[in-house]
Amino acid sequence: MSQPAQKAVTQSLVSRYVNKETLKYVFTTHFWGPVSNFGIPLAAIYDLKKDPELISGPMTTALILYSSVFMKFALTVQPKNYLLFGCHVVNSLAQTGQGFRFVNYHYLGGADAKTTDAAASKPAAPQ
């Protein structure tokens, strides 16, 4: 792409997305609230790789309920806050995954399978 054409494309994109309305939206709580709230689902997604023994069942349940309530809230406020809604959808899905891991580990034999696997992989003692 030639230099003048590239400059025209860049100016077109900047004028389309960096305007008064966009800047006005970025400096509101409708934007920064959900952005800062995304730490919760990101932490839950990161924790999907950790040991299920560390998962708190009551806290996971509370976070699923919290996200469900705020999904409804995000669509009730005016104007509708789709960014907040998306944040809580992701959090709800991540926490549900954690909840399944918790139930599997504590109630469906995951802990027993873990100890059996650990014992089977342990080398035999020399005689």
TrEMBL record:
<keyword id="KW-1133">Transmembrane helix</keyword>
<dbReference type="GO" id="GO:0006850">
    <property type="term" value="P:pyruvate import into mitochondria"/>
</dbReference>
<comment type="function">
    <text>Mediates the uptake of pyruvate into mitochondria.</text>
</comment>
<keyword id="KW-0999">Mitochondrion inner membrane</keyword>
<dbReference type="GO" id="GO:0005777">
    <property type="term" value="C:peroxisome"/>
</dbReference>
<protein>
    <recommendedName>
        <fullName>Mitochondrial pyruvate carrier</fullName>
    </recommendedName>
</protein>
<keyword id="KW-0496">Mitochondrion</keyword>
<dbReference type="GO" id="GO:0050833">
    <property type="term" value="F:pyruvate transmembrane transporter activity"/>
</dbReference>
<comment type="similarity">
    <text>Belongs to the mitochondrial pyruvate carrier (MPC) (TC 2.A.105) family.</text>
</comment>
<dbReference type="GO" id="GO:7770001">
    <property type="term" value="C:mitochondrial pyruvate carrier complex"/>
</dbReference>
<dbReference type="InterPro" id="IPR005336">
    <property type="entry name" value="MPC"/>
</dbReference>
<dbReference type="Pfam" id="PF03650">
    <property type="entry name" value="MPC"/>
</dbReference>
<keyword id="KW-0812">Transmembrane</keyword>
<keyword id="KW-0813">Transport</keyword>
<keyword id="KW-0472">Membrane</keyword>
